[in-house]
Please model this.
Amino acid sequence: MISLTKKDPEKTAVDLLVYIVARTDDKKLICARDSIRKRILPVWRAGDFSGKAEEVLLLYPGSAPGAKAGDIKAKRLLVVGFGKVEEQPDPRREQLRVAAGTAAAQARKIKAGQVLVVLPDFTGLAGNEVAECVAEGLVLGNYLFTKYKKPADDEDVPRQVEKFLLSGGTFPPSLVERGLREGSTAAMAACVARDMAYEPANYWTPAHFADFGSKLAARTGLKCTVLDKADMKRLGMGGILAVNQGSALPPKLVILEYRTRAKNPTLMLVGKGLTFDSGGLSLKPAAGMEDMKYDMCGGAAVLAAMQAVAEEKPQGLNVVALVPATDNMAGSAALKPGDVITHYNGRTCEVVNTDAEGRLIVADALAYGIKRFKPDAVIDVATLTGAVIVGLGHHRTGLLSNNDALAERIIATGGRCGEPLWRLPLGPEYTKQLKSDVADLKNIGGKSAGTITAASFLQEFVGDTPWAHLDIAGTAWGFTEKPYIPAKGPSGIVTRTLIALIRTWQPLQK
Model:
């Protein structure tokens, strides 16, 4: 889908040739090639293009101002505004993704089959960083999900770009190739997570999670283990079993393992795989319930990240992923408010609200995974609480952790990836809100601090293991709209952050 070319961009016959241009403080234009800058100067002088972020100028080389017949072989020339170059590296990386996403959107609009993008050289970033961010923006911005749509004969059908080419310009080809490879791998993984989330709940069930894991393992050499309902009963996974009581579909616990050496540190990922959440007997309102097919986005992100791990085969690290998968339905045997259940680690829980089910299944996976795999660090990803949307909106993922170094590392990595997080506190005062009169815990802590008390519940199942909880309920869908992030539908959030963490993983200080 995307590859490096060493050909002269202006002598390459493609459907669309793309240059990214920035503007200076005095509103002058910066472009990788002076010939392109001169070509767009008349338009700039006329005030029709200024180089602002997401601004585009589409020219036809044979008739554009200053053009000479045949000097550009591309059918079309697209100039994309970058805006003023930001001072800090992370915002500059995001500017590149936005510009590339803008180019991809324009290319789809004009139905360009082959698109050549020239990497800009004015950002101050290394060639691999520029290529990585541009590749991410192109792949993510080119994304479409049309599996279940049959357009009318007269409908203008959207079409994805078939092939992207990157021209590295003055950057070392080896750096550009590395960045292109890493950017496209991470972006394709995020697209896989989007695909899973877009699937309706009748076409993405716990069995589909298990099937995805099994096929990925068979294709790449990962080890896949799927625990079924009988296994869960034998192991005492009362949380997953309780949530599944009202369902016609059996639960699954999907486990993927990437192993290097036993002495290497192990990072464990846990992703909530709630394939549909009706709320159970604590039924959700009908309005918007169709979006509850997205309640498995944590599981999707974790499995998609494992796809990238299998492809890249990082050294010096073992990675284990667990996805507890079920739906939450209101069948005749459904869990009832007031019921008491026993989790894998023996802790009992009074279920006050059956719509606070995610923490019940993630708790079992955390307790089981930590006991079995003895990880050096754990990250769980879950669309856990509506409260995180109240607190942070749809712009930042909530992060809660028992380890400062791990939290800081995740926040820094998310910033580099354009997937920002915000840390919320934990403490015994919040855990007290979970005190039950009849069990060790109750599954909700009241209206106040809902995101924090949900994480406090999970904290009861991790012990002293360094752990971070990512609440993606506000960012898994409806995330901040950007040219490479759809206004509606799943974002694939934290998939790229997890991949970047794994690529750069260093043991936590003890």
Summary: The mean pLDDT is 95.
